[in-house]
């Protein structure tokens, strides 16, 4: 299966499973703790949220931002996000994140549990898009699963792109991209692309703050894992 087909199946999964999307947030205390982390992150100014899902993070971002533009490819989850987010400073947008390019720059680009759904071959282009979306002095802030989360997934072996099998309540099955980034490896990869990055672990997850290259050629300013 090539990346395009796998990503199409991934989009289909999130569209079909919109009503089940919030279940982990209700069942796992660790996710509630992660949501609270937003209050301690340097969220500021105009924020671009990528893969906003049902808006679990959006209202928390809006409480700290001047404005939030929240983007997702699945209109079904966006409908839930709109219903739960009352802030007039939030704008929702339906777009394929592998095709869409931000028309303006933002002070913060935020994405939670999205990086693990980006095929490895597309990561450099993805980070270039994030860099282009950031205003001078802006930061990318990201939260995702670490390697320990693989124990809770039905990982598919011998795939050209790391993938897992997800099942919905109706019995349907979907393959999704699922890359369990190790914080140290991710730090090294971002540093190689010229980003300045700090990643800290939190239970089985990680929280990262990154600043893009300051010149066209990039430059390694710092790289630490906590």
Automatic annotation (TrEMBL):
CDD domains in the record: AdoMet_MTases (cd02440)
Pfam family, one: Methyltransf_25
InterPro entries: Methyltransf_25, SAM-dependent_MTases_sf
Alphabetical keyword list: Transferase
Residues of the Methyltransferase domain: 47-138
UniProt key word Ribonucleoprotein: no
Gene3D superfamilies named in the record: Vaccinia Virus protein VP39
Name the record gives this protein: Methyltransferase domain-containing protein
């Amino acid at each position: 299966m090539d990346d395009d087909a796998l990503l199409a199946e991934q989009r289909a999964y999130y569209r079909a499973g919109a009503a089940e999307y919030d279940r982990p947030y209700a069942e796992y205390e660790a996710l509630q703790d992660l949501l609270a982390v937003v209050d301690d992150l340097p969220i500021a100014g105009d924020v671009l949220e990528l893969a906003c899902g049902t808006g679990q993070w959006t209202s928390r971002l809006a409480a700290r931002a001047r404005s939030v533009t929240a983007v997702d490819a699945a209109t079904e989850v966006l409908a839930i996000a709109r219903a739960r987010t009352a802030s007039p400073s939030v704008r929702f947008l339906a777009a394929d994140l592998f095709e869409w390019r931000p028309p303006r720059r933002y002070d913060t680009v935020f994405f939670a549990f999205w990086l693990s759904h980006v095929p490895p071959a597309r990561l450099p282009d993805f980070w270039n898009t994030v860099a282009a979306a950031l205003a001078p002095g802006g930061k990318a802030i990201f939260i995702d699963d670490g390697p320990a989360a693989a124990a809770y997934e039905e990982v598919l072996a011998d795939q050209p792109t790391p993938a897992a099998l997800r099942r919905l309540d109706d019995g349907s099955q979907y393959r999704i991209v699922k890359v369990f980034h190790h914080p140290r490896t991710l730090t090294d990869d971002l540093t190689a692309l010229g980003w300045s990055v700090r990643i800290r672990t939190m239970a089985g997850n990680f929280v990262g703050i990154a600043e893009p290259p300051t010149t066209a050629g990039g430059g390694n300013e710092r790289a630490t894992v906590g």
